[in-house]
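JOB MANIFEST
job_type = single_chain_structure
chain_count = 1
residues = 184
[input]
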Amino acid sequence: IFYIILVLLGSCKNTSRPNAFLMQTNIFVANQFVDAFYSFNRDSLASILSNAVESQSEILYYQKWAECGNYKVINRHKCIAKNDSMVLCPITVKDDLIGALKIDFNVTDTFHLTITEGKIRSVQTSSNDPDIYHKAKEWIKKNHPELIEEPCKGIWEGGPTPCECVKTMVKGFAEFISRELSDT
């Protein structure tokens, strides 16, 4: 009986512990995504996002935004598997938007990838943009909406002009910080 119990216990899967092989596979897929994103090759990114239908237009827009905003990778942190299907990939970048604000800060954008069966199913992003970034965006909306109304139409929803949008935002950020500095 003791031997049978040991065999039964040994054959039971520990479902509370994530599958290490699956998590490594997901990290590999996540790294392919990061490579495709920062290659600034739309076709490469679209291909890896072929199963992430709901995220595809937003992430393709963001890729072009990042390219035209001159995102330069400063630190590509390791992707982290949070569980069997969620991988986080934090990437620290230098970009024109923060540069226009004339602050010594590099933004870390984090990609939250849901991966099942070796395929990306969705991607969300988060960022540690500083408060002044958000203040500048609000200032533009309030004081110069004409800068962003057309160029930023459909922003983050696959809008047609991510380059024009980010460039007008940079222009607005520069004007915002110029006024902020002259007021002090």
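[summary]
The helical segments are 2-11, 20-39, 42-48, 53-68, 96-100, 131-143, 145-148, 162-183.
The radius of gyration is 21 Å.
exit_status = 0
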